[in-house]
Write a structure and sequence with these properties.
- This protein is of the alpha+beta class.
- It has 3 domains: 6-144, Potassium Channel Kv1.1, Chain A (2-Layer Sandwich), CATH 3.30.710; 160-278, no CATH class; 291-471, no CATH class.
- The protein contains 18 helices and 15 strands.
- A hairpin with a 5-residue loop joins strand 7 and strand 8.
- The N and C termini lie far apart (75 Å).
- InterPro entries: BTB/POZ_dom, BTB_POZ_domain_cont_9, SKP1/BTB/POZ_sf, TLDc_dom.
- It comes from Rhizophagus clarus.
- This is BTB domain-containing protein.
Amino acid sequence: MTTVFYSGLSKDFSSLLNDADDYNVVIQVGENQNVKEFRAHSVILRARSPYFKSCVSTINENNMVTFNKPNVTPVVFDMILKFIYTGELNLTNRSGEDIFGLLVASDQLLIEELLRYVQDYLLEKQINWVQNNIILILNTVFKFTSCEKLRDYCLNSIYKDLQSFITSDSSLLLDKDIFLDLIKRDVFQTEEIVIWNTLIKWGVKQIPELVNKDNLEKWSYKNYDDLKNILSDFIPLINFLEITSEDFHRNIQPYKAIIPNNIYEDIMTYYLVDQPKLYSFIQIDSKIIKPKLANLISNWIDKKNPLLVRTEKKNPLYKFDLIYRSNCDGFGLDINSFKNKCKGQMAILVLIKVQNSDKIFGGYTSIGFNSIENNFSIDILGFKWYNSSDNFIFSFENNEDMKNMKISRVVNNSKAILEYINTGFNFGWDSLYMEGQNLYIYNRYGDYENNLQLEGNTYEVEEFEAFVVTTNQ
């Protein structure tokens, strides 16, 4: 059996680093007033880092290698050298900024083991700093192949409140590649004109000359050309056919010069010829929501996944046929009345208006509540579960809310719908369900995403509606 004495080895190499008199590498790190010179041994650097293996392969006539790393601070590089020589790292009492700098430097120096550890440390021990620096982190690590965890955490943080993010100043700080990727994926579940307005603000922010030039009449031809070049990859991704003629006149027409001629001609053809038959709100006989929210719900139904790439036909029309309204058909305790209306039906939308509030909740199930007899399973408790990958639940702040709505899609497909004798409907075990005159939102078992973030809430229901959903084709 081999005996290993790592502690002594680490101690000896630490001494070699601190008292090196035979060094052959000099590295100057930092910039401006924060500069420090480090001395090291090429053989150790090359053994521990592919980056150094390449950089220090050539020794000059003085048997020395010298180079600069201005984008790494002395504090960070000191930690890196100690790790390289001894395998030791102590991040206690280090600032989030220094730890993040260590992550970035680890990527640059190709020290994968260190990078993975620091990434996990940030997410476990420095999560508050991460949450306060989402844009900085995302802009930095978006293309780091080894930082998927940190990148995905930042993206998911943005996804949780896309409506607020797209209209905030934070969105203007995104790097081009990230902003372009988000628009390609069509994650911003909001009106297209909001995306356009944010895109213009983002593009203007990239041109220092235009930042304080609010009056378009003072723009030069070069200003428009600069903006056109910056937004050239974005313009084809905007679905202009979803923008009203009024918004087009106010918000897009002034920027005609930045839109390619072929796209602009198609837009004008749409507004002058096709719009009357293509642009209309979905009709819905609801006392709870306005028709424009039905358009939004139909978009959620059609997309199935919030990260799908934008398509030409983004919002196929759906029909919403009312089959149950509580004030007309019996409310709350008459569970059988509601269930009988839903029996045999496929896709169903439910809407719930709560008491003493403008708040609205709802859910969509592509499989109905008890209609697919060959698509269920029974657990050990005897509960019947229905499988679906298309279901989602949602909330609106009021009956025409297009900015603060939330959507949570099903996560556990095998438990998308629970059939239970005492409740009107169950999305998941307890993600969203109605019993008696109360609506419950718990999500203790994570069957749906937690974007509603209202665990443990109970609401008294004022109005309840159910609709059969079919394609209008």
